[in-house]
Amino acid sequence: MPLRRSKVLVKWIFENQHKLQTVRCCSSSLRYKELEESAAQPEPLAAPPSPAPNTRPHISPEISFKSDDLQVRLAAPYQLQPKPEAGDLGFGKFFTDHMLKVHYQRQLGGWQKPEIMPFENLSIHPAAKALHYAIQLFEGLKAYRGRDDKIRLFRPDLNMERMNLAAQRSGLPTFDGDELIRCITRLVQIDQEWVPHSETSTLYIRPTLIGTEPTFGIQAPESALLFVILSPVSAYYKTSTDGAVSIYADPNVVRAFPGGVGNRKVGSNYGPTIEATARAAKMGHHQVLWLFGPDHELTEVGAMNIFMVYINDQGDKQLSTPPLNGLILPGVTRRSILELASQWEDLTVKEEVLTMKRVIELNQQGRLLEMFGAGTAVVISPISRVGFLDEDISIPTMKQAQPVFQRVKDTLLAIQYGHIEHPYARIIS
């Protein structure tokens, strides 16, 4: 075919690609110049098949975006925001100068090139599926500035694994978690001065994936947007003067149910908790202890996993948390606590069903020592009081001479801030 006719054909394909039935295999938009140049090249002779070196794994159902394709557009001086004082941070009130975006378009072959750009508002169609059917999910992890001034992430691979599981359940495209970690690493490096120079504050990282296809109909979206924003944060919420929280166990409301998405980090798990939490606050409590079933099984407390320390039937000190039965988010902090505490010879560690009846019995017998919540945002939150039906149960968490919750917290913070070298911490700067 003459070269001129090839150019015309290639140009027509490029301009009409949205009408073609076949899905292109590339992960980013084709460029006319590349097509033109490739059409001008003679077709190479066939070579024997050989395994491609460093082939990236395929993530069902599409090939992932690649960090090697990351494009960076830095903010202009006038776009930079003043950095707040550490004492003014709160949680999620301030945002850094840049963000990460990765678009997904099924008709264009799937994931497009990731881009870091100045922080900006999103432009989204009013009919986007994320707005109508809660086709969205998010993650939460942190960047910590260590005593050596190095910045660390805490087990980000587990966040990526959990994010992909939520995407799969929500009909959203999955991706290679390592590729997103590399993109996030670059984003944090660019905005590294937003990582607080303090061990009481951190940089919160919020990856989010939303369905953006502007059509009604409950089905997997043809288009999506993955974006990551950063926020310097301090304490997640206020506590009592002793640093502990009071929680209210309301048997009339549930957070999750069998076969649902209580074990996935989707927004629809959190919005419906606001009314119950506000009602608990009016009664003098900080958070809600979510129960399930006729036996009032403990599931989560607020947005945290819950732990209990007590003297078991063998006379040993035991650390227990409810099992992952589909009702509970598989927390990264939760998993880390179980793995770390299992190495302590003076403590028995177990996943078991915990009920309010068991809590009351152990407390009356003087065997209940501590209760605490755990999560990325709060790290460890000791619990000193539980409201349940007509009872007000005092938990002796803050009265222990050497509380387990403090030992757990000190160990986690030592890893996160680089006081000890540990494989859970990934140095990025």
Automatic annotation (TrEMBL):
Q: Which SUPFAM superfamilies match?
A: D-aminoacid aminotransferase-like PLP-dependent enzymes
* Sequence similarity: Belongs to the class-IV pyridoxal-phosphate-dependent aminotransferase family.
What is the reaction catalyzed? L-leucine + 2-oxoglutarate = 4-methyl-2-oxopentanoate + L-glutamate; L-valine + 2-oxoglutarate = 3-methyl-2-oxobutanoate + L-glutamate; L-isoleucine + 2-oxoglutarate = (S)-3-methyl-2-oxopentanoate + L-glutamate
Q: Where is the composition biased (Pro residues)?
A: 45-54
Could you list this entry's UniProt keywords, alphabetically sorted.
Amino-acid biosynthesis, Aminotransferase, Branched-chain amino acid biosynthesis, Pyridoxal phosphate, Transferase
The protein's matches in NCBIfam families, at most eight in alphabetical order, are given as: ilvE_II (TIGR01123), PRK13357.1 (NF009897)
* Matches recorded under InterPro entries: Aminotrans_IV, Aminotrans_IV_CS, Aminotransferase-like, B_amino_transII, BCAT-like_C, BCAT-like_N, BCAT_family
Q: What is this protein called?
A: Branched-chain-amino-acid aminotransferase
User: What are its E.C. numbers?
Assistant: 2.6.1.42
Q: Which cofactor does it need?
A: pyridoxal 5'-phosphate
